[in-house]
UniProtKB/TrEMBL annotation:
It comes from the Eukaryota. GO terms for cellular component: membrane. The keyword Membrane applies. This is G-protein coupled receptors family 1 profile domain-containing protein. Keywords: Membrane, Transmembrane, Transmembrane helix. Residues 35-292 form the G-protein coupled receptors family 1 profile domain. Coiled coil: none annotated. It comes from Adineta ricciae (Rotifer). The chain crosses the membrane at residues 20-45, 57-82, 94-114, 135-160, 189-209, 239-264, 276-300. It is found in: Membrane.
Length: 329
């Protein structure tokens, strides 16, 4: 007992661990915001990219990341810097909890839908041949996911009757009070976190297996179908790259949350969850734009072309200004 009493206080947040997270977040935030904003801008305002269906789920993920990086990450950086939530008011905590849980759930469910839709795009492309089918099988699911999650978390955090007990020394003021209800808490965990992660991994594995089988058939088919398959292969690569980063950062958090349902979580598990794994969602939204820009060569090309034109313009303007100054002298 004496050994436990001296060891347990060590397993907690320290100034050193807080400074590490603060340094990582503050270093990643500016470039992540720039990269994220560029991607969202081109996917929305470029006509070709805007009408490319398989980019819409990626756009939804990037919008979630952008909102998180604009709203959530600055707040967590501020919290890590001063070690308290400001302003220490109930409404501030409620808004932060709503934003955090809504954005976290949205990222999980949108990525699950992206994995499902990749199967449909590649192996059931006939579902998108008409405007009506595109609405029912593409646009409606995206809209339904967004509306459902907004309504669920507004109801759970603002409407569900429970006793709020905010802790201003914890990120997002602790857990929302609805998590004290086993039914709602378990539904939220499995529907918006655990199940999307498991299904996403299984769907990605299934996509690779189906693709390997399909490749043998495509080799013996016409050239047009081979070209089409190259397009599908690119879509698969985009999804697998995003899902790989997501799985690496989400599996530890989800597994440590799952363990207490079956057994007692060890002090080390509690420590890792509270000090490190809890922050992986914000880290994920900071890293995901960099992964996505590697999956979107069209955007990279447009940014390079824009930068090249800007460089040429400046190189033309500088000699003109220099010549004018010399002539005046």
């Amino acid at each position: 007992m004496s050994n436990n009493s001296t060891e347990l206080p060590v397993l907690g947040e320290t100034q050193w661990t807080r400074n590490i997270k603060f340094g990582i977040f503050i270093a990643l935030e500016p470039p992540a915001l720039i990269c994220n904003t560029i991607l969202v801008y081109y996917l929305i305002f470029n006509r070709t990219l805007r009408y490319t269906l398989h980019y819409h789920a990626v756009l939804a993920l990037l919008i979630v990341c952008l909102l998180t990086n604009l709203i959530e990450v600055p707040r967590i950086i501020h919290y890590l810097h001063i070690d308290i939530v400001l302003p220490p008011t109930n409404i501030n905590c409620l808004i932060w909890q709503l934003c955090d849980y809504l954005l976290f759930g949205s990222l999980n469910v949108f990525l699950l839908w992206a994995s499902i839709e990749r199967h449909l795009f590649i192996f059931h492309s006939n579902l998108y041949t008409t405007a009506k089918r595109r609405f029912y099988f593409h646009y409606l699911p995206l809209i339904s996911i967004a509306v459902y999650l907004i309504l669920f978390y507004i109801g759970a955090i603002f409407i569900y009757p429970c006793d709020t007990n905010f802790d201003f020394t914890q990120p997002i003021c602790g857990y929302p009070c609805y998590t004290a209800s086993p039914n709602i808490s378990l539904y939220d965990y499995f529907a918006h976190s655990c199940v999307p992660l498991i299904l996403d991994i299984l769907l990605d594995i299934g996509l690779v297996i189906r693709a390997m089988r399909h490749k043998r058939i495509v080799v013996n088919q016409q050239r047009e179908q081979v070209v089409q398959w190259r397009k599908y292969r690119k879509m698969m690569f985009q999804l697998l790259l995003i899902s790989s980063l997501y799985s690496v950062l989400q599996i530890p958090f989800v597994v440590v949350q799952l363990i207490p349902l079956f057994t007692i979580l060890s002090p080390l598990g509690v420590y890792l969850q509270a000090v490190y794994f809890y922050y992986f969602f914000w880290l994920l939204t900071l890293l995901l734009p960099f992964v996505c820009i590697g999956c979107l060569p069209e955007v990279v090309k447009k940014v390079k072309d824009l930068f090249t034109r800007w460089t040429r313009r400046n190189t033309m303007i500088v000699p003109i200004i220099t010549n004018r100054l010399q002539s005046r002298q």
